[in-house]
Amino acid sequence: MAPIPPGIRLLVSFNRDQWYRALTFMLTFLLYTSFHLSRKPISIVKSELHKNCSSVNELATASSSNQLLLQSPLHNDMDCSWKPFDKSNYKQLLGAMDYSFLCAYAVGMYLSGIIGERLPIRLYLTVGMLTSGLFTCLFGLGYIYNIHNLGFYIFVQVANGLVQTTGWPSVVTCIGNWFGKGRRGLIMGLWNSHTSVGNILGSLIAGYWVSTNWGMSFIVPGLIIAAMGVVCFFFLIEHPNDLNSVYAQSCSPGNNLPAKSRNGLNGHKELYLQYKEGKSQAYYSNEDIVLYRKSYDTELLLPRDHGSVCMPVQQVVVVKSESEPSAISFMGALRIPGVIEFSLSLLFAKLVSYTFLFWLPLYITKAAHLDAKKAGELSTLFDVGGIVGGILAGVISDKLGMRATTCAIMLLLAAPTLYGFSMISEFGMGPTIAMLLVCGGLVNGPYALITTAVSADLGTHKSLKGNARALSTVTAIIDGTGSVGAALGPLLAGLLSSGGWDRVFYMLMISDFLALLLLLRLVANELTSGKSHPTSAVELKEH
User: Average pLDDT, stretch 71-87?
Assistant: First the structure.
């Protein structure tokens, strides 16, 4: 007999639950990657919506092949900017588009978590992704059909912002259901890199078409997120217990399993539960009817040995209302220790992160004098740094057991980095690349840690007494409050940049300092207690 290949040995070494965890990890990673992929195009297209007309005219004169006129065969490019963004107040108009999306996202997020607790997450997320794909494509169709109405683009942004709120509470709830407390910071840090991966892919896809047909910069990401919505419908498993029905079907009467019954009191047939490690089956023989069931609650009452045990289920009463606790209220979630502090800190941390998300390509275009495609490609380095920063924040917080302290250290280091980044035009390409990587790590590290590991910790806090149905609501409150900052940041950047980019960076540094200030009480508690804050020391039920 030939030896089994090492790769096959590796594959069979994992049990069924580990494979399902890996599937959930990768699927939720890809699902939220598509969300950020569909948000990124607007930042890439901004420099195309309003160009430097004098530079464009010089290029058109110098080009013997008149390539500029051939870039957009659907339109007359005598006007180098896209109406209505061809006016002198174009920064305010672009900022208004960002604000309309992010404000709708912030308002919708508070409702999304509460709704998500009460609906099947798979269906809720699928509908959100399909409608988000529709509205993303609609923005691109504005180019195809030559639409110059500002109200149209504002409406699309508001609608897209609302439906995109279905994403974050849903995927965080799923990943929190499948992964317990062990090394949560590392796991969440790796998983949260989907944000930066989506931004990178969105930049590259949008940048490919931005100079020739910027409508495709929206249509292609819109089709991608809609396609991922279909994948979500067919494959997403919300909770490990949802697989019970699949296990039960494998033990269906058609599999010719023997029914077991014994004489009970007064000669009546009784219901017995046969239990084996990893699975349980209930048999009831009355008029040749065989019933099968799996119950996590009864499973806890049975001994775990390598044999099998038959016990009368008549002695075990499982109350559904106890096994499935009711969803937590909004005010109840706010009373969880740490929710308010982390939510307000995230408001300012996300303000900084989303200002970079929506304005970095345009800033590089103006400060480094690069075209839209090159600026979009260079801006991806900020997200590469964000991947490393998110993972480091998770690893360090796991090692120290101090979530708030880890965030505070990174916020403290980010302030001088932001000041250096404001002088990017004075650097060469090498220092600019290094600054993008470092700044991305320090800015996105705390943001990633709070929205993932901290949210999951708080959503399963010991004060909830095992009620895991609070996770979606807590996640929505934290990210919804952060989204208020995400809405304000790009809006303020649009208003302040008209007086110079230095004002924008001063605003970012002040926001960074305020985010740090709001965490000081939690940091003091962690340092004085000599162990992690209760939000990160909760004993979570392993799934």
Answer: 61
